[in-house]
Amino acid sequence: MFCLICKDKPNHVQLRMDNRPAHIEYVLSAGIVAAAGPFTSDDNETMIGTMMLLNVDSRAAAEEFAANDPYAQAGLFDSVEVFPWKHLIGGLEDPNKA
């Protein structure tokens, strides 16, 4: 499993909102996203980034998924970090289990 930490470019909320439907469709249709959601500013409303847990076996697969995200394609992200991640505590659904 890999974790994506994506930080938006400053003052790009409108670009995020314009591309949000395509991003959500991409994430939901991928079949590899165990958990995902936006980071917010301290007001707990203004979205400033994205965190995703991907059920993939390689960094290359995680990086490919990240590069094809509509947010990335639109130029929203200031940075994208990819980390191998081990699940320890809490329930996560495996999108590959039927």
Question: What's the layout of helices and strands?
Answer:
Blueprint: E1 2-8, H1 13-30, E2 33-40, E3 47-54, H2 59-68, H3 70-74, E4 77-84
Antiparallel strand pairs: 1-3, 1-4, 2-3
Task: Write a brief structural summary.
34% of the residues lie in helices and 32% in strands. It is of the alpha+beta class and 98 residues long.
How would you characterize the overall build of this protein?
This protein is of the alpha+beta class. It has one domain (about 1-85): Dimeric alpha+beta barrel (Alpha-Beta Plaits). The protein is built from 3 helices and 4 strands, in the order E-H-E-E-H-H-E. The chain has helices spanning about 15-30, 60-70, 70-75, and strands at about 1-10, 35-40, 45-55, 75-85. A 4-stranded antiparallel β-sheet has the order 2-3-1-4. The protein is globular, with a radius of gyration of 13 Å. It starts with a strand and ends in a 14-residue tail after the last strand. About 20% of the residues are buried.
